[in-house]
Amino acid sequence: MSTLPPCPQCDSEYTYEDGDMLVCPECAHEWSKDAGDATEAAKVIKDAFGNELKDGDAVTVIKDLKVKGSSLVVKQGTKVKSIRLVDGDHDIDCKIDGIGAMQLKSEFVKKA
């Protein structure tokens, strides 16, 4: 039994070969057999509405967010400039006026 890599998009273990391509039956994602680690390195981070985010973009917070360990709140509609994308659960590094350096989740912002 050959071991095929899981889908890089949805991590499904039910991938199969179709010619020179690997296919995921759950999300219909197709990728090259040679692309193995290259697809993970080129991870795309999207905002709450599906727009692709890039380093240096400006975003707007779509929900009031409590700051852990503080009584501060990042209000809905707060505009954040010059974001930096990082790996991890909180995938946006930024600096918010009046609060300072923070990490945000991309699911709580929209591209401005």
UniProtKB/TrEMBL annotation:
NCBIfam families assigned to the protein according to its UniProt record, in alphabetical order: phnA
Gene3D superfamilies: 2.20.25.10, SH3 Domains
Organism the protein comes from: Leeia speluncae
Pfam families associated with the record: YjdM (PF03831), Zn_Ribbon_YjdM (PF08274)
PANTHER family linked to this entry: PROTEIN YJDM, PROTEIN YJDM-RELATED
Domain Protein YjdM N-terminal: 3-32
Similarity-based family: Belongs to the YjdM family.
InterPro entries in alphabetical order: YjdM, YjdM_C, YjdM_N
UniProt name for this protein: Alkylphosphonate utilization protein
Protein YjdM C-terminal domain residues: 45-112
